[in-house]
Amino acid sequence: MTKKVVLAYSGGLDTTVIIPWLRENYSCDIIAVCVDVGQEANWESVKRRALDTGAADCYVVDVKKEYVEDYIWPALKAGALYEDKYLLGTATARPLIAKTLAQCARNEGAYAIAHGATGKGNDQIRFDLGIMAFAPDLEIIAPWREWELKSREDEIAYLEKRGIPVPMKRNDSYSRDDNLWHISHEGLELEDPSREPKYDSMLKMSVPPEKAPDVPEYVEIEFEKGIPTAVNGKKMDGVSLIYELNKLGGAHGVGITDIVENRVVGMKSRGVYETPGGSILYYAHSELEHLCLDRQTYAFKQIVREKLGELIYGGFWFTPLREALSAFVDSTQSRVTGKTRLKLYKGGITPAGASSPLSLYNENLASFTTGELYNHADAKGFIRLYGLPILARALLEK
User: Fold this and answer.
1) Which of 210, 250, 321, 390 could form a disulfide with 206 if both were Cys (CB 3.0 to 4.6 A apart)?
2) Which of 10, 49, 94, 279 is catalytic?
């Protein structure tokens, strides 16, 4: 009986090459699994390409709802970023894809799981750690760590030699990853950090900011316990809400990030990320937290936010520490309910007001007009005690 290998299949260049390569080098039946996390794809065409290339079977697993509720929302509630810029679009999706591949491998009785992540990238770590968490007994095959192909040009030549159609144009060979949260771009002119990205030909979800409308657009986001539930007064499920905000944000060139980041394997790499809806949500959520969280909770949450960003980026989603930190975040979100209004204009997001029934903002306290809750005279004693170490040191030095 021929052994089975489950392949994480996208229909892109890498996985198109991997199918014939696995057949030639492993003599196995390949079950191509497309995990639908909201990427732009014609799944019937993708499935047909997999079968035409030599896969024994191909099917699509729709996990968009799970992706939003169990991966995107925890990152959003935490405000998790990597190196101040990256909204973790690929990093949040890979653990779920790995989990899904492990489940499919069990169902198929496969002995191994294969993926197309390169030996230089972060995704190999995210895939491998996710597979290890759910299928530690299965073999992991990562052709980029084994084969002699060195570049995307080599991959194209490999397919052309075998008469297999190349699923891309030579002059548009950015390495891309997309899902409903974002799309990333790497390669070509981006490999030179001194060069400006060619946004006119590169961007897929957004327009370049200078080509956005000359008139701003306002958007109102409603949250319940840290989770967005409505856009401009219209209640939506998570998947629909993100798609709606992607459309709004993309039209105004919002959420385009050009970053040189530190990969887990040690090198620096440059990428351009489009996260229009996600950028709107992060901004709106942060504005609401400023209203609803007390100072100490907010300050400690910033520490947790940074650590969670590092853990998610590094592939440690299925770990006790990530789960514990997410539990802390969830406890803080019980007060984060309300509405945030934002203005979108030529790539920028600016606040236009926020409100919450649980707001800690008290106009009587904050107003320059003296109110019953605050006596200006109390400030003198407070400041003297607050600055007592400064006073003591000054007296000593005198």
Assistant:
1) 250
2) 94
Query: Quick check: 237 and 176 in contact, CB under 8 A?
Result: no
Q: At what angle do helices 295-313 and 320-332 cross, to 10 degrees?
A: 150
| Among 252, 255, 249, 253, residue whose Cα is nearest residue 274 | 255
36 belongs to the catalytic site: no
The Cα 87–Cα 84 span in angstroms is: 9
- 348-355 sheet: strands from edge to edge: 234-235, 227-231, 217-224, 338-345, 348-355
Q: Which CATH class is domain 182-293+336-355?
A: alpha beta
Output the six-digit token pair for 155.
Answer: 């991959």
Pick the catalytic residue: 23, 57, 175, 341? 175
Domains of the chain by residue range: 4-64+89-173, 182-293+336-355, 367-397
Cβ-Cβ contacts under 8 Å for 363 (sequence gap 6 or more): none
User: Does residue 175 have an active-site annotation?
Assistant: yes
DSSP string, 226-252: TEEEEETTEE--HHHHHHHHHHHHHHT
Tell me how far the alpha carbon of residue 395 is from its chain's centroid: 53
- pLDDT averaged per 10 residues in sequence order, the chain, 398 residues: 94 95 97 97 96 97 98 98 98 98 98 96 97 98 96 92 85 84 95 97 97 98 98 98 98 98 97 98 98 98 98 98 98 98 98 97 72 82 95 93
Cβ neighbourhood burial of 318 (10 Å; 0-12, 13-18, 19+): middle
Candidates 3.40.50.2000, 3.40.50.300, 3.40.50.620, 2.40.260.10; CATH matching 4-64+89-173: 3.40.50.620
Q: Which residues pair with 57 in a beta bridge?
A: 31
- The single residue of 123, 128, 177, 178 carrying the catalytic annotation is 123
Say whether 14 is catalytic: yes
Q: Do domains 4-64+89-173 and 182-293+336-355 have the same CATH topology?
A: no
**Total residues found in the chain within this entry:** 398
Apex CA 256: angle with CA 202 and CA 79, to 5°? 140
Q: Give, for 258, the enclosing helix (H) or strand (E).
A: strand 256-262
Sign of torsion, CA 151 153 156 161? negative
Concerning whether 172 is annotated as a catalytic residue, the answer is no
